[in-house]
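Take one record.
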Amino acid sequence: MAMQQVLEQLEFETHGQGFTRLDPHLNQWLAASGIDTGVLHLTCLHTSCSLTINENADPRVLVDLAAWMEAVVPQDGHGPVTANGQRHRYRHDDEGRDDMPAHIRTALTAQTMTLSVQGGRLLLGIWQAVYLWEHRAMPHRRRIACHLVGERITERTVPASEASQANLLQRRNGPKLNEVVLSRHQPDAWAEDGGVDTEVDLLIDRLHEIADEQP
């Protein structure tokens, strides 16, 4: 099968600082693409939010991640403590005190991600989910570039000759087929029918013939 690719930008609404789960939406998009097996590369097209894979069951994990990030990069508009014990305001603060901290948080995390696709879905661990991590305080509309490369499922048309009963039976093991026929054969049935070959008798004879034929 020839490799195919799809490149599209998807938009997601965030609700301010925090996590927006993406994998259910990505799986819907994958299903619509028709590609069964391949690789999906994601790129976050912004400088104040990022992508991450993390826990999908216990929401306290996301709470702890947010608390850790707040401790490392506070959103109060001030940088780290200097040698003289002071914290100075960031120079880049045109869009608010949370702006420069959001850029730093983005630099510490990831803006791209490559995932395997199997069966038309993301190949993730049972406890894994894909999140868009918003680092700004206000809600935003974010764009994710989705570049999918893979193979589609194609239904093979079987020629009529291949679909015939004889050909299907020829693919079976001849001795095994004979063994099955004999196990179901009733020797006294022919006498009970008055010595007349019935359709069942003729079918059994034909099955023996097919089993002995070479594919």
Notes: The radius of gyration is 32 Å. Residues 199-212 form the longest helix (14 residues). The chain has two domains: 4-152, 160-212. The domain at 4-152 is CATH 2.60.120.460 (Jelly Rolls).
